[in-house]
Amino acid sequence: LLVFLALALPGTQGKTIPRCEMVRILRKNGFEGFVGKTVADWMCLVKYESDYNTKAYNNNGPSRDYGIFQINSKYWCNDGRTSGSKNACHISCSKLQDDNIEDDIQCAKKIAREARGLTPWYGWKNHCRGKNLSSFVKGC
What we know:
Layout: H1 2-8, H2 19-28, H3 39-50, E1 57-60, E2 63-66, E3 71-72, H4 102-115, H5 122-127
């Protein structure tokens, strides 16, 4: 019965947001020029952090990254298992794994604002920084 209920619940597998839909979401939410970065920068970040999957997570030893922006439980959200969590976005990490990414967007913007850029995200630092990223928004 529990297996059936888990399969029947929408969003349990997470949603993979199509590329151009993600571009539209970022543009609509004011990411173009935010902290001096382009929507293409954010698209590259999302591609390498979560592959556009709202349910993505990654274990980092004592902490974990959650959701489409891979927001870390040590500093930004509370997962109930990371000791000393700061929870600076005042959100449960599980809320970062549902299909509604409005709260994810607010937290990601807070992180970028405090860092004055995208350096907290290793996906962006390792794969996107200083590169031509126009392909991430091309045709959208």
